[in-house]
Amino acid sequence: MNKVIVSIILFFSPAGASYSSLDAILAPLPDPIVLAEDVAVSEESYSETTKVVEKPFFPITAADLREAISNELSDIMSPSTELTLIPLRTLPDLSNHSKPFSLRLISYPGRLSRANMLLRFQVENEKGLVGEYSAPFRAHLYSNVFYIQTNLKAGEIAAASDLEVRRADLLVESSAIPADPKQLERHEYSRNLNSGRVLQWADLTERSIIKKGEVVEVNAKSGLLAISTRAIARQNGVEGDFIVLRNLDSNKEFSGLVVSENKVQVKFR
Asked: Which residue range forms the structural domain that includes residue 175?
């Protein structure tokens, strides 16, 4: 038991003193008498006030480690889609170490591929270096892409209504077209396509705004002189293409620049 000395101060007035006058009221107080009293304080209550509160322990789990490795590799590779890493063996057991922690990749491949990859990494927490480790992984880049839902013919204008959206691994379907309707604008199917497979970039070609055999308007300019005529397109053409045409009157062939729908521009001297 610890003992604390408590001082009790008592003031006594002289016997028979009267406070009937102002002088008596203002008179100095007598010297105090101090009495000492032992007050017991338990050791238990004393120890409670001095007990150190321990910091909570949050172990580093395998899921924490996997997420940190994926985030670190994503920051380095900067993929445009979701990167998922699948460990091919059990990750190091770091449950004896507490979070928060930081992870740094020491070695990694130059690019993502379908091949298995070995990643080396270093882990630290607030106590310092935890250790250096390595583990094999397989990477997946998942994204929403277009799949063909009905048979299509070459030359048809590409439309989102012909397609359905599915999730695919771009490391497997590397030529898959992202499910963005803007990717289809001004495009047509370059070949006959069967339903059920992923739509690839090779399945599309820029849409021809002039078709072979169509009669088109031809504008010829030279300085301030401008002449308009009509001709037959001898081949398909997209904007910016030079195509061969045949004059309706002379049957002579010449070339012109496709500038818009059914319009060709020719320059002459």
From this structure: 142-206
